[in-house]
Specification:
Chain B: Keywords: Cell membrane, Membrane, Transmembrane, Transmembrane helix. Chain A is mainly alpha-helical. In chain A, 69% of the residues lie in helices and 9% in strands. Chain B has one domain. In chain B, helix 3 packs antiparallel against helix 19. The chains are: A mainly alpha (138), B mainly alpha (528).
């Protein structure tokens, strides 16, 4: 896959896919989408970048080790389950907070943070597997 | 969006009454172990801090499980539905005495293993993720014990299976991969059967919540599909629990991983299978259990006998322990086969005892290897001289696993035998007693050869073989080895000498299983 066209296009393509993965993550609460599928799209972006430019370039681009990303996602998901403890409600009961921002209202909620946690777990775990497989192939 | 939402009466759609803080004890073990697992992964490059994270977290889990058991014993079965969605739509976590008791024992065993592993798991294997796997394994096991939703039970099975795969190949040896493949294939087949049975059950009754299933299956009155499902579930969980004839994976794989890993497997994993059998066969499908009871009885006896005969035939101590695990599984199945209150109580008592003693026995094997550097019953010998304390602990544990008084296993077998006699199942009693005798012979042989005999198999009676000149002095036994061994042995003796407390818990557990009304009331009581 080491063609000039692919290597030129890959960074732009991965950037677009990463952006799209965030879009899919955020629309997930009310429409098809969510953390899991968004995470998979992000991993495909990293995989394309890795096929084109090599594994070390991806590791540099990710900045943190994939395992740490997955672990922090798990931590975030667990924390998002907890706030209802202070309100005398069951675990995972959703809490909503409407924040006015630049003229619109943004709904922040615990399910959103849970979904971001799932996204990070999927990104970390799958890209960790993908990267080590690609490394073996080199 | 929130501002424009019309006012809705939420009481119809959600549980709105306040949840007492104590109910959070149901999910606390899972939240704690997940947090600990995530932290241990983040600190994976600091092998020195990892054990402390794990030990601190698991200690908290032990305390929370003690509080949970106390909560269940004082207030009855406890339920919490996730996200406040009313059951059967929200996923319920329901702790009855059986689940809470096993969760507590599992966390105690895991704590002992975490301490034991401090010295016996090499630094590079810690980097590879021993402690995260251990925490996630405990997460999966307690999740399975505390969930009240059958699909959720499947999910926890997956969590603990994936962690166990990781732990099994710790060390990357060829023989470990071989053992792991057998273990993985058989367990994946069992999990697939479990999932297929759950799909069919959902098709039949249209619900996954265990309390709801119990109600709807009762209404079906033991029709054909229910019996078929019971048979399917029995096969799936019997594979997990290592019951004859689908137990060949256990002796083929439990001697390959690190001994601390084998200890946690022997203590927890097969017990999860037995727990699932108790939950599904006794609580959810009592008609199916009645229909299958003779078959379960035969399987139980075959499992006990192959287990204890296998233990008698082995010369590798690790394999011998594997067969002892199987013999114990047979005894618990015998309780399920008989199915009256005393027998179910005996099965619960045995499961609790088995978690502690199998973990302790594998740790004992690790200890024996530490001072003798061999696993072969032909080579080993003279350990009494090297460690009288170790010999005493070994004697207690080995007699305990054979079910001799005054240790905890005796009371479990007493309950089982009493239950079987009460139900007029003389042949189950015969199987239990013969298997007990054979196990006693097997462990007696092990103790005499390893501790009493002066040296290896060529040593003449009465002579103490001296260590071969030039061979290294036996290593100093550190506190991380003594502490878990002594703690587990102490618990086994304590339960054996004062069995009343445990027996009342297991009786209560059996009552809750046999009469699902309190379980159902706990799940639906608040909303209907």
């Amino acid at each position: 896959m080491n063609t000039l066209i692919f290597r030129t296009v890959a960074p732009y393509l991965s950037a677009l896919m990463l952006l799209f993965s965030v879009f899919v993550l955020l629309r997930g609460h009310n429409e098809p989408g969510g953390g899991f599928i968004g995470g998979l799209i992000a991993v495909s972006a990293f995989a394309i970048y890795g096929i084109a430019c090599g594994v070390s370039a991806v590791r540099r681009a990710m900045k943190y080790h994939p395992m740490s990303i997955a672990a922090s996602g798990l931590l975030l998901a667990v924390l998002s389950v907890m706030p209802s403890i202070f309100l005398g409600q069951s675990a995972m009961t959703s809490q909503w907070l409407a924040v006015p921002f630049l003229g619109t209202v943004i709904d922040l909620s615990t399910p959103l943070f849970f979904d971001i946690g799932v996204y990070l777990v999927v990104v970390g775990a799958i890209s960790s597997i993908a990267l080590s497989l690609e490394e073996r192939a080199d | 969006m929130a501002a424009t939402k019309p006012a809705i009466d939420m009481t119809a759609a959600m549980v709105t009454e306040a949840v007492p803080l104590a109910d959070w004890l149901l999910v606390a073990p899972i939240l704690l172990t997940m947090t600990g697992g995530a932290l241990a992964i983040i600190f994976r490059k600091k092998p020195a801090t990892q054990p402390w994270i794990a030990i601190a977290v698991i200690s908290l889990v032990v305390f929370s499980n003690i509080a949970l058991l106390n909560h269940v014993l004082t207030n009855g079965v406890v339920t919490m539905v996730m996200g406040s969605w009313p059951p059967p739509f929200g996923i319920a976590f329901t702790a009855d005495p059986l689940g809470a008791l096993l969760a507590l024992m599992a966390s105690i065993a895991t704590l002992c293993v975490a301490v034991f592993a401090m010295d016996s798991i090499a630094t590079n294997e810690r980097r590879y993720g021993f402690y995260p796997f251990l925490l996630m394994l405990l997460c999966g096991v307690t999740g399975a014990f505390l969930t009240g939703d059958i699909f959720n039970l499947y999910v926890w099975f997956e969590v603990l299976l994936i962690s166990s795969f990781g732990m099994q190949i710790l060390g990357n040896e060829k023989v470990q991969i071989d053992g792991a493949v057998k273990y993985a294939v058989l367990n994946l087949i069992a999990t697939t059967l479990f999932l297929a049975a759950t799909g069919l059950l959902y098709g039949l009754v249209g619900t996954l919540n265990m309390a709801d299933i119990a109600i709807k299956v009762q209404a079906l009155d033991g029709s054909g599909p229910v019996l078929g499902l019971a048979a399917l579930y029995f096969l799936a969980f019997a594979m997990k629990a290592a019951a004859f004839p689908v137990n060949f994976w256990l002796p083929a794989s439990y001697h390959t991983p690190r001994l601390v890993v084998a200890a946690i497997f022997a203590g927890l994993l097969s017990k999860v299978g037995v727990y699932a059998l108790l939950r599904v066969m006794v609580l959810l499908m009592p008609e199916g259990r009645d229909w299958l009871s003779s078959l379960i009885g035969l399987v139980a006896i075959a499992t006990m006998l192959t287990g204890s005969l296998g233990a008698l035939a082995q010369t590798d101590i690790r394999r011998l322990m594997g067969y002892l695990v199987i013999a114990g599984i047979g005894a618990m199945l015998a309780g399920i086969a008989v199915g009256n209150e005393a027998a179910i109580s005996g099965a619960i008592f045995y499961a609790m005892h088995s978690v502690l003693i199998m973990t302790a026995l594998y740790l004992l094997v690790a200890f024996m290897f530490q001072i003798s550097s061999t696993f072969s019953l032909r080579e080993i010998g003279g350990l009494y001289v090297r460690s009288p304390m170790g010999a005493a602990i070994g004697l207690v544990l080995l007699l305990g696993v054979a079910g001799l008084p005054p240790f905890s296993g005796f009371w479990a077998k007493l309950l089982l035998v009493a239950g079987a006699l009460e139900a007029g199942r003389g042949w189950v009693v015969a199987g239990l007693l013969v298997s007990g005798l054979l196990s006693t012979l097997a462990v007696g042989r092990l103790w005499i050869f390893a501790f009493w005999r002066g040296g290896n198999e060529h040593t003449v009676d009465g002579i103490q073989a001296l260590p071969i000149a030039g061979s290294a002095e036996p290593k100093e036994i550190s506190l991380t080895i003594w502490l878990p061994l002594v703690a587990l042995t102490g618990l086994i003796v304590l339960i054996g000498v004062f069995p009343e407390g445990m027996m009342s818990v297991s009786d209560y557990g059996a009552k809750t299983l046999l009469d699902p009304s309190t379980y159902i009331a706990s799940v639906f009581g608040g909303t209907q």
